[in-house]
Amino acid sequence: QVQLVESGGGLVQAGGSLRLSCAASGRTSKTMAWFRQAPGKEREFVAAIIWGGGSTGYGDSVSGRFTISRDNAKNTVYLQMNSLKPEDTAVYYCAARTADYTIARTSSAYDVWGQGTQVTVSF
Q1: Beta partners for residue 34, in sequence order
Q2: Nearest to 103 by CA among 31, 21, 22
């Protein structure tokens, strides 16, 4: 079983930056992703990356501002968030897909989840 531990959330002013980290251990996953969920809203796809080749995908609301990357040696995936907006405020979750190497954009495609980390962007 894959275990995921997120870190790096916090409070930042609009226009600022944060970097989230997700350390993976255990059974090998094939695709890693970040989702987010704001109060009263559905969980939203943010970004995904395939471990081996490094192919990536982004949600429309973050494309051009967020960058997902991975460090294979550390089994860690990062989400660099720039030009943050108040509407980016949410709990951010790291997720792993073990079935295949697919940039999946729905939460049901991922079978392992981290505990979540809060990101708050103030005006």
Answers
A1: 47, 94
A2: 31
